[in-house]
Amino acid sequence: MKPETLRALIFDFDGTLADTESAHRAAFNDAFAESGLDWHWDEPLYKQLLEVSGGKERILHYWGQVRGDIPVIDTGALADTVQRIHDLKTAFYERKVQEGAVQLRPGVPHLIDSAFDAKLRLAIATTTSPVNVAVVLRSAIGPDWAHIFQVVEDASTAPRKKPHPQVYLQALQRLRVRAAQCLAFEDSGNGLRAAIDAGLPTIVTPNAFTTHHDFAGALHVVSDLQGKTVEELRNWHASAQR
Ligand code: XBP
Ligand code: MG
Which among 104, 128, 210 is the best mutation to test ligand 1's pocket, defined by most ligand atoms within 8 Å of the CB? Predict the structure, then answer.
Protein backbone atom coordinates (compact mmCIF):
# COMPACT_ATOMS: atom_id res chain seq x y z
CA MET A 1 0.00 0.00 0.00
CA LYS A 2 1.28 3.50 -0.90
CA PRO A 3 2.65 5.28 2.21
CA GLU A 4 0.55 8.21 3.41
CA THR A 5 1.87 11.76 2.98
CA LEU A 6 2.21 13.96 6.08
CA ARG A 7 -0.55 16.59 5.78
CA ALA A 8 -1.26 17.90 9.28
CA LEU A 9 0.24 18.41 12.73
CA ILE A 10 -2.04 18.26 15.78
CA PHE A 11 -0.58 19.80 18.94
CA ASP A 12 -1.62 19.42 22.55
CA PHE A 13 -1.47 22.85 24.18
CA ASP A 14 -0.55 22.91 27.89
CA GLY A 15 2.96 21.58 28.43
CA THR A 16 3.54 20.91 24.71
CA LEU A 17 3.20 24.18 22.77
CA ALA A 18 3.76 26.30 25.90
CA ASP A 19 5.08 25.88 29.44
CA THR A 20 1.79 26.75 31.17
CA GLU A 21 1.33 24.49 34.18
CA SER A 22 3.27 26.62 36.71
CA ALA A 23 1.02 29.57 35.84
CA HIS A 24 -2.08 27.31 36.02
CA ARG A 25 -0.99 26.07 39.46
CA ALA A 26 -0.51 29.64 40.75
CA ALA A 27 -3.89 30.66 39.32
CA PHE A 28 -5.65 27.73 41.05
CA ASN A 29 -4.09 28.81 44.38
CA ASP A 30 -5.12 32.45 43.84
CA ALA A 31 -8.69 31.31 43.11
CA PHE A 32 -8.78 29.15 46.26
CA ALA A 33 -7.59 32.12 48.38
CA GLU A 34 -10.11 34.47 46.72
CA SER A 35 -12.85 31.91 47.45
CA GLY A 36 -11.87 31.74 51.14
CA LEU A 37 -10.68 28.11 50.83
CA ASP A 38 -7.63 27.02 52.86
CA TRP A 39 -6.44 24.84 49.94
CA HIS A 40 -2.91 25.16 48.54
CA TRP A 41 -1.61 23.02 45.69
CA ASP A 42 2.22 22.83 46.01
CA GLU A 43 4.28 21.43 43.10
CA PRO A 44 4.43 17.78 44.27
CA LEU A 45 0.64 17.74 44.85
CA TYR A 46 -0.05 19.49 41.53
CA LYS A 47 2.12 16.91 39.72
CA GLN A 48 -0.21 14.21 41.11
CA LEU A 49 -3.38 16.19 40.37
CA LEU A 50 -2.29 16.64 36.74
CA GLU A 51 -3.21 12.97 36.31
CA VAL A 52 -6.75 14.41 36.11
CA SER A 53 -7.23 16.29 32.84
CA GLY A 54 -9.33 19.45 32.99
CA GLY A 55 -9.25 22.16 35.64
CA LYS A 56 -12.86 21.70 36.80
CA GLU A 57 -12.45 17.92 36.98
CA ARG A 58 -9.21 18.46 38.96
CA ILE A 59 -10.95 20.72 41.51
CA LEU A 60 -13.82 18.23 41.91
CA HIS A 61 -11.34 15.34 42.29
CA TYR A 62 -9.43 17.24 45.01
CA TRP A 63 -12.68 18.25 46.75
CA GLY A 64 -13.59 14.54 46.98
CA GLN A 65 -10.09 13.77 48.33
CA VAL A 66 -10.11 16.39 51.09
CA ARG A 67 -13.82 16.79 51.82
CA GLY A 68 -15.04 13.27 51.00
CA ASP A 69 -16.45 13.04 54.55
CA ILE A 70 -18.97 15.86 53.98
CA PRO A 71 -22.01 14.42 52.16
CA VAL A 72 -22.80 16.45 49.05
CA ILE A 73 -26.28 17.75 49.70
CA ASP A 74 -26.87 19.13 46.24
CA THR A 75 -24.71 18.10 43.29
CA GLY A 76 -26.03 21.13 41.37
CA ALA A 77 -24.75 23.48 44.07
CA LEU A 78 -21.40 21.67 44.07
CA ALA A 79 -21.11 21.99 40.27
CA ASP A 80 -21.94 25.72 40.53
CA THR A 81 -19.29 26.21 43.23
CA VAL A 82 -16.65 24.38 41.18
CA GLN A 83 -17.59 26.42 38.10
CA ARG A 84 -17.27 29.68 40.11
CA ILE A 85 -13.82 28.69 41.45
CA HIS A 86 -12.72 27.66 37.94
CA ASP A 87 -13.96 30.92 36.38
CA LEU A 88 -11.93 32.83 38.99
CA LYS A 89 -8.90 30.64 38.25
CA THR A 90 -9.19 31.33 34.51
CA ALA A 91 -9.30 35.09 35.18
CA PHE A 92 -6.18 34.88 37.38
CA TYR A 93 -4.45 32.73 34.73
CA GLU A 94 -5.27 35.22 31.97
CA ARG A 95 -3.71 38.03 34.04
CA LYS A 96 -0.54 35.98 34.66
CA VAL A 97 -0.19 35.30 30.92
CA GLN A 98 -0.65 39.00 30.14
CA GLU A 99 2.11 39.73 32.71
CA GLY A 100 4.43 37.44 30.71
CA ALA A 101 4.32 34.32 32.92
CA VAL A 102 4.00 31.88 30.00
CA GLN A 103 6.40 31.22 27.09
CA LEU A 104 6.19 28.91 24.10
CA ARG A 105 8.43 25.88 24.58
CA PRO A 106 11.89 25.76 22.91
CA GLY A 107 11.76 25.20 19.16
CA VAL A 108 7.98 25.66 18.92
CA PRO A 109 7.91 29.12 17.23
CA HIS A 110 10.39 28.08 14.51
CA LEU A 111 8.72 24.71 13.88
CA ILE A 112 5.26 26.29 13.62
CA ASP A 113 6.58 28.86 11.13
CA SER A 114 8.34 26.27 8.96
CA ALA A 115 5.40 23.84 9.06
CA PHE A 116 3.01 26.64 8.04
CA ASP A 117 5.36 27.67 5.20
CA ALA A 118 5.53 24.00 4.10
CA LYS A 119 1.71 24.10 3.78
CA LEU A 120 1.12 21.57 6.57
CA ARG A 121 -2.29 22.03 8.26
CA LEU A 122 -1.90 22.98 11.95
CA ALA A 123 -4.38 22.15 14.72
CA ILE A 124 -4.64 22.21 18.50
CA ALA A 125 -6.34 19.48 20.58
CA THR A 126 -6.47 20.49 24.25
CA THR A 127 -8.48 19.95 27.43
CA THR A 128 -7.93 23.56 28.49
CA SER A 129 -10.42 26.40 28.04
CA PRO A 130 -10.50 28.35 24.74
CA VAL A 131 -9.67 31.67 26.41
CA ASN A 132 -6.42 30.14 27.73
CA VAL A 133 -5.31 29.16 24.21
CA ALA A 134 -6.17 32.60 22.82
CA VAL A 135 -4.45 34.64 25.53
CA VAL A 136 -1.19 32.68 25.26
CA LEU A 137 -1.02 32.54 21.44
CA ARG A 138 -2.14 36.16 21.02
CA SER A 139 0.74 37.31 23.25
CA ALA A 140 3.28 34.82 21.79
CA ILE A 141 2.38 34.92 18.05
CA GLY A 142 0.02 37.89 17.68
CA PRO A 143 -3.54 38.04 16.28
CA ASP A 144 -2.51 35.89 13.28
CA TRP A 145 -2.40 32.79 15.52
CA ALA A 146 -5.99 31.87 14.57
CA HIS A 147 -4.99 31.94 10.88
CA ILE A 148 -2.00 29.64 11.58
CA PHE A 149 -3.91 27.10 13.71
CA GLN A 150 -6.91 26.53 11.46
CA VAL A 151 -8.54 24.02 13.84
CA VAL A 152 -8.75 24.30 17.63
CA GLU A 153 -10.63 21.68 19.65
CA ASP A 154 -10.76 22.46 23.37
CA ALA A 155 -12.76 22.02 26.62
CA SER A 156 -15.67 23.99 25.12
CA THR A 157 -16.02 21.74 22.04
CA ALA A 158 -14.86 18.39 23.48
CA PRO A 159 -16.21 17.98 27.04
CA ARG A 160 -14.93 14.40 27.38
CA LYS A 161 -11.37 15.03 28.57
CA LYS A 162 -8.17 13.12 27.72
CA PRO A 163 -7.42 10.20 27.84
CA HIS A 164 -10.77 10.09 25.99
CA PRO A 165 -9.88 10.61 22.29
CA GLN A 166 -12.85 12.94 21.57
CA VAL A 167 -10.76 16.09 21.15
CA TYR A 168 -8.44 14.39 18.62
CA LEU A 169 -11.25 12.66 16.73
CA GLN A 170 -13.04 16.00 16.33
CA ALA A 171 -9.84 17.70 15.18
CA LEU A 172 -9.31 15.00 12.51
CA GLN A 173 -12.92 15.41 11.36
CA ARG A 174 -12.58 19.17 10.99
CA LEU A 175 -9.18 18.88 9.27
CA ARG A 176 -10.72 16.35 6.87
CA VAL A 177 -7.58 14.16 7.00
CA ARG A 178 -6.91 10.60 8.07
CA ALA A 179 -4.96 9.92 11.31
CA ALA A 180 -2.22 8.24 9.23
CA GLN A 181 -1.69 11.56 7.41
CA CYS A 182 -0.84 13.35 10.68
CA LEU A 183 1.59 13.59 13.57
CA ALA A 184 0.33 14.43 17.08
CA PHE A 185 2.44 16.13 19.76
CA GLU A 186 1.83 15.59 23.49
CA ASP A 187 3.49 16.06 26.91
CA SER A 188 1.43 13.75 29.16
CA GLY A 189 0.36 10.12 29.57
CA ASN A 190 -3.34 11.02 29.32
CA GLY A 191 -2.70 13.01 26.17
CA LEU A 192 -0.64 10.25 24.57
CA ARG A 193 -3.39 7.70 25.22
CA ALA A 194 -6.02 10.03 23.73
CA ALA A 195 -3.92 10.57 20.58
CA ILE A 196 -3.08 6.87 20.18
CA ASP A 197 -6.77 5.92 20.63
CA ALA A 198 -7.54 8.34 17.79
CA GLY A 199 -5.03 6.40 15.65
CA LEU A 200 -2.40 9.16 15.64
CA PRO A 201 1.37 8.55 15.52
CA THR A 202 2.51 10.69 18.45
CA ILE A 203 5.69 12.55 19.41
CA VAL A 204 6.06 13.18 23.15
CA THR A 205 7.99 16.11 24.62
CA PRO A 206 7.76 15.58 28.39
CA ASN A 207 8.16 18.48 30.84
CA ALA A 208 8.98 18.82 34.55
CA PHE A 209 5.38 17.90 35.49
CA THR A 210 5.17 14.79 33.29
CA THR A 211 8.64 13.16 33.01
CA HIS A 212 7.44 10.29 35.25
CA HIS A 213 4.42 9.43 33.05
CA ASP A 214 4.16 6.20 30.99
CA PHE A 215 4.89 7.03 27.32
CA ALA A 216 4.61 3.48 25.94
CA GLY A 217 3.28 3.63 22.39
CA ALA A 218 4.83 6.99 21.52
CA LEU A 219 6.46 7.13 18.08
CA HIS A 220 9.33 9.15 19.63
CA VAL A 221 10.01 10.76 23.03
CA VAL A 222 12.29 13.82 22.71
CA SER A 223 13.17 16.42 25.37
CA ASP A 224 11.79 19.29 23.26
CA LEU A 225 11.30 20.49 19.66
CA GLN A 226 14.43 22.69 19.64
CA GLY A 227 16.09 22.51 16.18
CA LYS A 228 13.48 20.12 14.78
CA THR A 229 12.76 20.62 11.06
CA VAL A 230 9.82 19.74 8.83
CA GLU A 231 12.18 17.30 7.10
CA GLU A 232 12.72 15.49 10.41
CA LEU A 233 8.96 15.40 11.02
CA ARG A 234 8.47 13.87 7.58
CA ASN A 235 11.10 11.19 8.45
CA TRP A 236 9.40 10.50 11.79
CA HIS A 237 6.05 10.24 9.99
CA ALA A 238 7.52 7.88 7.34
CA SER A 239 8.96 5.66 10.10
CA ALA A 240 5.44 5.28 11.52
CA GLN A 241 4.28 3.84 8.18
CA ARG A 242 6.89 1.06 8.20
C1 XBP B 1 -3.85 20.38 30.30
C2 XBP B 1 -4.96 20.32 31.25
C3 XBP B 1 -5.70 21.57 31.60
C4 XBP B 1 -4.77 22.57 32.29
C5 XBP B 1 -5.58 23.61 33.06
O6 XBP B 1 -4.46 20.54 29.05
O7 XBP B 1 -5.30 19.23 31.69
O8 XBP B 1 -6.73 21.19 32.48
O9 XBP B 1 -3.98 21.86 33.25
O10 XBP B 1 -6.46 24.29 32.17
P11 XBP B 1 -3.72 19.98 27.69
P12 XBP B 1 -8.04 24.39 32.55
O13 XBP B 1 -4.65 18.94 27.13
O14 XBP B 1 -3.56 21.19 26.81
O15 XBP B 1 -2.36 19.40 28.12
O16 XBP B 1 -8.09 24.85 33.99
O17 XBP B 1 -8.59 25.40 31.58
O18 XBP B 1 -8.58 23.01 32.35
MG1 MG C 1 -0.60 18.78 27.86
Answer: 128
